[in-house]
Amino acid sequence: xxxxxxxxxxxxxxxxxxxxxxxxxxxxxxxxxxxxxxxxxxxxxxxxxxxxxxxxxxxxxxxxxxxxxxxxxxxxxxxxxxxxxxxxxxxxxxxxxxxxxxxxxxxxxxxxxxxxxxxxxxxxxxxxxxxxxxxxxxxxxxxxxxxxxxxxxxxxxxxxxxxxxxxxxxxxxxxxxxxxxxxxxxxxxxxxxxxxxxxxxxxxxxxxxxxxxxxxxxxxxxxxxxxxxxxxxxxxxxxxxxxxxxxxxxxxxxxxxxxxxxxxxxxxxxxxxxxxxxxxxxxxxxxxxxxxxxxxxxxxxxxxxxxxxxxxxxxxxxxxxxxxxxxxxxxxxxxxxxxxxxxxxxxxxxxxxxxxxxxxxxxxxxxx
Length: 368
Ligand code: OSB
Ligand code: MG
Hints:
This protein is an alpha/beta fold. It folds into 2 domains: 5-116 and 354-367, Enolase-like, N-terminal domain (Enolase-like, domain 1), CATH 3.30.390; 121-341, TIM Barrel. It has helices at 60-78, 83-90, 97-115, 119-123, 142-155, 170-179, 198-203, 221-230, 244-253, 263-266, 269-281, 295-304, 319-322, 354-360; strands spanning 5-20, 25-38, 41-47, 129-131, 133-136, 159-163, 185-188, 212-213, 235-237, 258-261, 286-288, 328-329, 339-341, 351-352, 361-367. The strands form 4 sheets. It has a 7-stranded parallel sheet. α1 crosses α3. The protein starts with a strand and ends with a strand. 2-succinylbenzoate binds next to loops. The site of magnesium ion has 7 residues, from loops.
């Protein structure tokens, strides 16, 4: 059979609390949902490109354009239905990883649903619960940051990540560490520093952090390697790793010791698994990053995080940490202290709620 219908829905959802990184503060998220149907069975994916090109060069609108004009026609014209076939064909187009991944994820969900299997079984996952962590944005004051961290710990999260930027780094770590000396803690700079700032970054070694994520710009593997040689804390790369080849180069160069894997950033599950397998073979642990996905993208991430090399806690939290009304049923919840159980139904194992999606929709288009 072949895909007979693809729907793309551009949606906007307000956060329960604003989210501030070194590059911006946002109060809501604009992203797209992709539904691919074959006969009566439909698979769902989420495209994580954001409203503005701050985290990556893609935006929700460029991804819409790439999906509508290039990727959807490719799927329909060639009758692609296997995710691996799609990934190979889509690779002729350069860049646009998030657009590519949104459709590939929908094809994976469809494939697993047709097989009657949860995605983690299809992927060869090795665990039924994953370690849940929370990513805490920059706040208006250190007191508010410490309060929020305390709130998340009370909810049961075990690992905390805090966003840093110049002027909100050593003091932020000191404030959190003073109140919570022993929690697993890490920081993420989203590329806000330059090599000139290396003394500040080296000062972070004093806080017993699990890792320092993406201190320098995405393209800058070289300066990350220089910094890693002078720090004891492992560096982790996020934005820099946009493909298997950049992951391999980063590890060979010593630019990092840990990789944050995001399916959207690397262009799909096929590329994710190549990176994962390489890291596993080279003793580099990985973990699953997040893009503040709605439940559809987050359910996909839960399944990905069951692969064996996902050793560190993930940026995967419960639905209510992000949204008042997530777009899935049931919501994702913590299943135990600092863990989330991976859904066991077919495919992603959670149900998109189409009435809520319609209420959040800015624009929808259907392709046959
Ligand atoms: O750098 O990991 C990041 C969200 C948007 C863009 C970049 C990042 C993030 C997060 C959110 O840290 C993590 C999550 O989804 O829980
Ligand atoms: Mg990051």
